[in-house]
Amino acid sequence: MTKQIQLFNNIAPKAFEDIEDDYFLSNEPIDNPDAIILRSAKLHDMTFAPETKYIGRAGAGTNNIPVERATEAGIVVCNAPGANANGVKELAAMSLVMASRNVLDALKWTDSLKGQDDIAAKIEAGKKNFVGRELRHKKMGVIGLGSIGGRVANMCIDFGMTVYGYDPYVTLRSAWGVDSRVKYTEDLQTIFSECDLVSLHVPYTEENHHMINSDILAYAKDGLILINLARDGLVDLDALEAAIESGRVGTYVVDFPEEKTLNMRNTINIPHLGASTPESQENAARMVINQMTDYLENGNITNS
Ligand code: MLT
Questions:
Q1: Which protein residue's CA is at the shortest distance from atom 6 of ligand 1?
Q2: ipTM of the predicted structure?
Q3: Which atom of ligand 1 is least distant from the CA of 84?
Q4: What are residue 114's phi and psi, to 5 degrees?
Q5: What pLDDT sits at residue 303?
Q6: Domains in the chain and their CATH numbers?
Q7: How many Å lie between the centroid of ligand 1 and the Cα of residue 286?
Q8: pLDDT for 304
Q9: Which EC class is this protein assigned (predicted)?
């Protein structure tokens, strides 16, 4: 019988063309799907159907899936590690430059000149308010040296920065292709006390809930630029707000806006765009489709 696949979020339809003759694919709810493929839809309240054997997250994080409950129900849960790494790396590049060069405030101000006279003169006079800093020779801390963090660390080496890397799970950093010029450190304090900019690239787990808290922010250099394109629960927002108010954190860039971050000073809110490119979406969809077909057809689990 044709296997039924429940899709959420209309992910990369092109990636499904190869299997559409062999599987019944539906973006509308179906009663008893053999597999579920999703992007950011939240499955916490979902009652799993008896036939469901596989859930594929077309992205890196799995915190929108009740993994333990699914596993207990005998469902294999897979993700697509690295599929969107380039998309997130490029957004990190934008975040570093945007925060260092006051680009957001500058753009808002430039936009406010619409309809006014003497725009050239006003720009000449006003641009002094947006003088920024270059990245070259600054110290960059990368927390998490997996497929995304590793690429960000290497990119920052290319920017001419001194890069410090920290990863609670990685000791053989060469396995991730991280540039040998990245200074590996085993403690977060070093990252915060040394670096001008810090970027988070770890998944969210119970253990690292609020890993960025008042204790660690106490080590930060004044004016730190903190970038979080990873997950919201990593940062204790009350502690962060206090650090922004005291000037210890100069700018926070976050790809998971919520009411609090939208109301926080010196915060650049991005509407979760890290993986929002057709390239990343297609890579991620193809990765989980391959895993799914291999599991449903051959019983192989190949989450890499
Ligand atoms: C991820 O976990 O990789 C992202 O949340 C993916 C996405 O935005 O779809």
A1: 59
A2: 0.91
A3: 3
A4: -50, 135
A5: 77
A6: 3-83+278-298 (3.40.50.720), 85-269 (3.40.50.720)
A7: 14
A8: 60
A9: oxidoreductase
**Among 40, 78, 88, 200, residue to substitute to test ligand 1 (most atoms within 8 Å of Cβ):** 40
Instruction: Read off the tokens for 30.
Output: 């179906």
On the CB side of 178, how many CA atoms lie within 13 Å of its CA? 28
* Residue range 241-277, pLDDT digits in tens: 999 999 999 999 999 999 999 999 999 999 999 999 9
Query: How far apart (Å, rounded) are the C-alpha atoms in residues 145 and 186?
Result: 12
For ligand 1, whether the C-beta of 84 sits within 6 Å is yes
What pLDDT, on a 0 to 100 scale, did the predictor assign at position 169? Answer: 81
- Residues in the chain where the model's pLDDT stays below 50: none
Q: In this predicted structure, what is the pLDDT of residue 170?
A: 75
Cβ contact 64:41 at 8 Å? yes
Structure pTM? Answer: 0.92
Query: How far away, in angstroms, is 198 Cα from ligand 1 center?
Result: 20
Say what the pLDDT of residue 173 is.
53
Atom of ligand 1 nearest to the CA of 59: 3
CA–CA–CA angle 83, 176, 277 (5° rounding): 20
Residue 233 contacts residue 221 (beta carbons within 8 Å): no
**Single-letter amino acid code for the residue at 278:** P
